[in-house]
# Entry
Amino acid sequence: MHRRFEERLDELAELVLRMGGFVEEAISRSVRALVDRDSNLARAVIADDGEIDRLELEIDRLSLEALALQQPFARDLRFISTAMKITTDIERMGDLAVNVAERALELNTEPQLKPFIDIPLMARRAQEMVHGSLDAFVRRDPEEARRVIAMDDDLDRRMEQVFRELVAYMVKDPQSITRALRLSFVTKYFERIGDQATNVCEQVVYMTEGTVIKHPWLAEDSKTANE
# Structure
């Protein structure tokens, strides 16, 4: 029975990594659809999102089966409950990549507003954060989780920089407003992917250390109340 339980945990970790791999690929393809003005690729990203949704449901099913198979304690229980929580974040990352693809479809019908330099860099950083957060989960590595969390500031800075540039375009040429707004949405989508990866990492820290870093002020209030 214990061996079967361990096999379920291994399968669960594999499914989480597979789901994350689909998300990483969706991010890569969505930004390529924008930069290369490839509407067919954008449509493919949208069409393939169903596989990410399917894996989310499969992970939930396997997690419940693992809980029913053997009542796990401490370490394994946290691993299973964290897997169920982070799949929501991972699925949301896939949705955000779809949003990028949808904006690419719209932007590809109009003249390109500006060279795409910072946006591909944001996409790459978002991919790195997704990959790192999933590695941290599977390896149960809180230090890797903290390293990924620290990367989020760079995405925030890049989003603000691109937004300022787009505002300048809108002020200079009112006819560029629609395109500039759509590009600002794209930067926000990648920034939000970074936020979701951060959420995953915060769960990993709690899973491995029992330390709440998601809402530190609440954790501090609780600590003070217990003193």
Remarks:
- Residues 222-227 have pLDDT under 50 and may be disordered.
- The longest helix spans residues 2-35.
- The domain at 2-215 is CATH 1.20.58.220 (Methane Monooxygenase Hydroxylase; Chain G, domain 1).
- The chain has seven helices and no strands.
